[in-house]
Amino acid sequence: MKIVVIGGTGLIGAKAVALLRKKGHEAVAASPSTGVNAITGAGLYDALRGAHVVIDVTNPPTYEGDAVMCFFRDATRNLIETEREAGVQHHVALSIVGVDRMEGNAYFAAKCVQERLIAASPVPYSIVRATQFMEFLGTIADLSTADGAVRLSPHQFQPIAADDVAAIIVEIALGLPLDGTVDIAGPERGAMHAFIGTYLRATRDARRVIADDKATYFGGSMAENSLVPTGRMRQGRMTLGDWLDRMRLTDTTTA
C-alpha cells in the first residue's frame, strides 16, 4: 500500500515512515526538503498519485497567530483538493486533545479550522487528537519561565511519547477510516507542574517550579481538564519514567 506522510521528515512523521516501511508498505516522506510543499502545492500531486492513505503531521515554521492560521488553512485546502484529484481513500490528521476547549491559544484555533476543513471533505478521514508530547516538556518549561522560575498550571496533564503517537497513527492509517475523531494520551495523568518538575529534576535542571492556577498554556486559559481526554481514549504504553530512561540511554550511547 502506498502511504504518503505529509511532514514525513519531522518528529512524528519520520517515525511513522519507518514503521510503515518496516511493515512492508510504500511510505513516502513528503516535506519541503523532499520537494513536496503543501502550502504552495509544489510536488503535491505527484507525491499523492496512486496513494491509498495520506497522513498529515505537518507543523508550521512559526507559531505567530496569523501565520499559523494561514498555514493550516491553506495547506489543508491544498491537501483535500489534491487528495480528491488523486483518488486518496483515507486522510489521517494529527491534532491536539482539547483543541476546541481553550480560548486564547492561536495554535489551537488554527487546528480547529483544520479539523473543520477535513470533516467537510469528501475524503474519508480520521482525526487523531494527541495530548502533549513528552519530547515537548522542555519547550513548555522554557516558554513558561520568568525570572528564573517556571510557572505552570496545576491542572491535569497526560503527556504521550512520540513513539506511541506514531505507532497509533500508523495503526489507524492501516485500518478502516473512522470519519471521526479519536483521542490518544499517555498512560499517566497528573498535575502539569508535577510532570514537568519531574522532567526538570531528571535532566538536572535547577529551575524552581511554581504551581500557578492562573498560568496559561501558550496564551490559552486553562481549566482542570483542558488538555486531557474527557471520554474514551486510546493510551500509549510509555510512562514518563520509561521515556526518561530511554533518553538517558540514548544520551549515553551517542555521547
Automatic annotation (TrEMBL):
Gene3D superfamilies: NAD(P)-binding Rossmann-like Domain (3.40.50.720). Keywords: NADP. Signal peptide: none annotated. InterPro entries: NAD(P)-bd_dom (IPR016040), NAD(P)-bd_dom_sf (IPR036291), NmrA-like_oxidored (IPR051164). It comes from Caballeronia zhejiangensis. PANTHER family: BLL4366 PROTEIN, NITROGEN METABOLITE REPRESSION PROTEIN NMRA FAMILY MEMBER. This is NmrA family transcriptional regulator. Residues 7-172 form the NAD(P)-binding domain. Pfam families: NAD_binding_10. It comes from the Bacteria. SUPFAM superfamilies: NAD(P)-binding Rossmann-fold domains.
